[in-house]
Amino acid sequence: MNLEADKFREFLGIEVLEVREGYARVKGVVGENNLNFHRTAHGSYIMALADAAFALAANSDGRERVALSIKVDFYKPAFEGEELIGEAEATKKGRIMFCDLRITRNGELIAKGDAIAVAVEK
Questions:
Q1: What is the pTM of this model?
Q2: How many domains would you assign to the chain?
Q3: Could you tell me which of 31, 94, 41 has the C-alpha nearest to residue 72?
Q4: Do the Cβ atoms of 99 and 115 come closer than 8 Å?
Q5: Mapping DSSP to helix (H, G, I), strand (E, B) and coil, where does residue 77 land?
Q6: 3-state secondary structure 54-101
Q7: What CATH number does the domain containing 26 carry?
Q8: CA-derived radius of gyration, the chain
Q9: Which domain, by its residues, includes 10?
Q10: Tens digit of each residue's pLDDT (9 = 90 or more) over 3-17
């Protein structure tokens, strides 16, 4: 897995904290450019954190997978300057991988979801 090739993650300033087989954890800090008109973190920024962790977890075993589906439910807002942690953990591995997603702030759950990835056929 070539982490340097992930330019979108880099553009958003999402830092990779941990990757192991079937699991990944990333960190992002809500910046001014990540805010919506309510002055809270835009849902797409929170979703991007979840997706970044998901992509890493889904490809962590050396098998190339792409997303089929990703869904996130939002529970609480996040604000400028806050550090958010995104985690993805595989619940089923194989050609198709299912993952649970979590976004937290200081250990408090602000969003969660699930995602499905499929191995690329070459």
A1: 0.93
A2: 1
A3: 41
A4: yes
A5: coil
A6: HHHHHCCCCCCEEEEEEEEEECCCCECCCEEEEEEEEEECCCEEEEEE
A7: 3.10.129.10
A8: 14
A9: 3-119
A10: 667 888 888 999 999
